[in-house]
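User: Predict structure, ligand nicotinamide-adenine-dinucleotide.
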Amino acid sequence: MNRPVIQPGTPCLVTGGAGFIGSNIVDRLLEGGAYVRVLDDLSTGRLENLPLGADRFELLEGSITESSTCERACAGMDLVFHQAALPSVERSVLEPAATHAVDATGTLNVLCAAKEAGVVRLVYAGSSSAYGDTPELPKHEGMATNPKSPYAAAKLAGEMYCRVFSEVYDFETVVLRYFNIYGPRQDPTSQYSAVIPIFMAAAMAGEEVRINGDGEQTRDFTYVDNAVDANVLAATAPASAASGRVFNVGCGERTSINTLWTEIRDIVGTGAEAVYGPARAGDVRDSLADMTHIRRELGYQPAVALSDGLRRTCAWFGQRQQSVST
Ligand code: NAD
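Assistant: Predicted complex:
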């Protein structure tokens, strides 16, 4: 698959653009010649992820919980890549109202502002957590949803609003349900960090990792470049194929946490060990994406496989550690 691109000069808003996935989208858009505005409150995002001072780039620091900020952010934009969210299951269990305010109400604010500003299309960062703990695998978009955490419920509410805006207002939205995205810029230091950056940082430091549960739970790990491809395809596909639709974004392969840890240990070349603790509240047991729909409708293929993605991520962590220590 050739890497998909946006037309040069297209004005694009990336909410949450200072975060892990958002900043990787920003880089791809700028590379293709788009004009990029980021709206981010820097709650989990970082300025160092952004090309501050670059041509065709602008940062608007503010929150999607403020309607007027969303209106300013959407003015003059053709495309919106809506990535901003409080993206942690664990945090949502502790702070459900805060998660709802950003992930559900914030999404509604962005949708209202985008529609009023005449944005052509909004692509939404949905979540595979919408499927919950149903035993059926792989998860396909036609399945009933079954959120198991406040995070999953709020992300699903945002998704519902996207679909309703397409139906009621004829406003083009595309929902992408991400399955465990990983890669450069994912933060290993937050208490809510995802498993790959935590494992990688521990392996590089030669420290033991803690595995929640027995480690036989599985995930469909997806390299961030694949998710960026999916975003660009969703933004550029004909409306008849994309608008009002929901697409899984994964690799179509599942890997257990134990296998993942072994792969990372091998790549890093460490003898660090794993210790096992209790399973986490709100976590699902198994996850695997059915890729039929996105392959057929958007022409998406997961270009980077797990072993390659882990190697690239490891190289990035290594470079980052070097630049921090020099
Ligand atoms: P991230 O924390 O790196 O990025 C989220 C960004 O949103 C950050 O830059 C943060 O500062 C910003 N943000 C948070 N609250 C905001 C607010 N009120 N106003 C403006 N900006 C705000 O997380 P990520 O992993 O890059 O996640 C991006 C999106 O993808 C989220 O919507 C998340 O729910 C979704 N998602 C991620 C994964 C994954 O595996 N990483 C899986 C499923 C869904």
